Amino acid sequence: MASTHSEAARILGERIRGVRLGLGMSQEEIAQLADIHVTNLGKIERGQANPSLTTIVRVAGVLGADPAELVRGLGLEDLPDTTRPLTVADFVRERRSRGL
Does 83 score more than 70 pLDDT? Predict the structure, then answer.
């Protein structure tokens, strides 16, 4: 079985699946309504895909969900640890410490 794309992708997929199941809908039905391929929806629900904003909004729309609720609470710590993300606050603090 393929691994998840990231913790953020896993959480998003879990939330989408939960809403879909709560509505009693199949992946095929939601994918058709959202105009995406069912295998793509399956990968999203398993956290194996990194869906675009357009796809998130489409899926949320057909589920009758607020896209913001599907991503609420996700942050940099939920992304893969490829590099340490630099925040604006980090950047400004470093720049000020150098007198720039």
Answer: no
Q: Residue 78: exposed, middle, or buried by beta-carbon count in 10 A (0-12, 13-18, 19+)?
A: middle
97 vs 95: CA distance, rounded Å: 5
Instruction: Identify the CA nearest to 14 among candidates 6, 61, 87.
Output: 6
pTM of the model: 0.81
Domain parsing of the chain, residue ranges: 7-97
Q: What Å distances lie between residue 100 and 26, 90, 93, 95, CA to CA?
A: 56, 14, 10, 5
CATH entry 3.20.20.370 includes domain 7-97: no
Distance of alpha carbon 59 from alpha carbon 40, whole angstroms: 11
